[in-house]
Specification:
Elements (H helix, E strand, L loop, with lengths): L5 E4 L4 E2 L1 H13 L5 H4 E4 L3 E2 L2 H13 L12 H9 L14 H16 L7 H15 L3 E2 L1 H10 L4 E4 L7 E5 L6 E5 L6
Parallel strand pairs: 1-3, 1-6, 2-4, 3-5
Antiparallel strand pairs: 7-8
Amino acid sequence: MNPNTDNLIGSGVVFNAEAFFKELDQLESKGVPRVHERIHISSRCHLNFALHAAVDGLSEEELGTNQIGTTKRGIGPAYSTKAARDGLRVIDLYHESFEQKLRLLAEGYRKRYGELLKYSVEDEIQRFKVYKEQLRPYIVDAVEYMKVMRENKSSMLVESSQALSMTGCRAEGNKDSVDWLSARSGLR
């Protein structure tokens, strides 16, 4: 993490809160300066739940000899719920419908996988009650954040989703240009 660059986890990322806090701890233990002040999360990121990881393993088993070799971290199922518009975003943590939406998502998977799905939606809800408060200082409106960073000619790295153009944007110092950079994938 460049000490002169702010970092934004962009809207296209499926965000894993547990992995985020583990990575923050690692960066802090390495002595990265002002890490908590310089990392931000788009309120529009979709959440990658333990539910997605549980489903990822089951989906892989269903494929039998045609398995795709998933990491079983839930990334594929999280993007699937994003595409199907069933997913929950970071901002949804702060709405009273969060628990209902997560229960509905879990119920859909339970209908598909039945007792094979080893997952407790109530445990996940309790974890996210804690994450909700821990995440609050990092969450930003990404569009407004990037606008301000650009106006101030501040340096930033935007982490994007895994796709054909795995790119981030950096607005540099006094230059009036935008450089496109490869994004890292460590927080998903």
